[in-house]
# Entry
Amino acid sequence: MAELKLKVKKTSSTNPVTKQKGFVARVQNNGTADFDDIVKEAGRNTTMHKAELRMAFELCMDSVTEMLKQGFIIDLGPLGKIYPSCSSGWYEKEEDMKLADVKPQLYYRAGVEVEAAIKSAKLVWAKPGDEEEEEGGTPSGGDDPGTGNDDPDNGME
# Structure
């Protein structure tokens, strides 16, 4: 497997505690691999037509969605696991916690191979001319909320 190389860039940011302006590192992604890209790549060196692959993937995604709605942990093999989760904050007394304070969330834990690839990635500074395609969401890295929680039973705080 080829070594993962991540381009990182320096991005201005405000420290949430001190409110001081400074910088954080952000991963500069290579765009988004959409469903069509995944189907095309999955079909390489096979005799399956892309329509067959698309239908198989769509059926799998329908099943994953349905299982999540039923509260199951979804094991996606080498990709990792998706967990239904929640966050509530901390309360000294049990009776102080209200259901309205609990927020449902989704938690993802990368598989061993995926996590190893990310952790062993070679980091290089992005050049000013390097383009980044951001389509919604939060760029990865830096002070992105919701990352770094390794306990799926604890939810995301």
User: Anything to note?
Assistant: The mean pLDDT is 84.
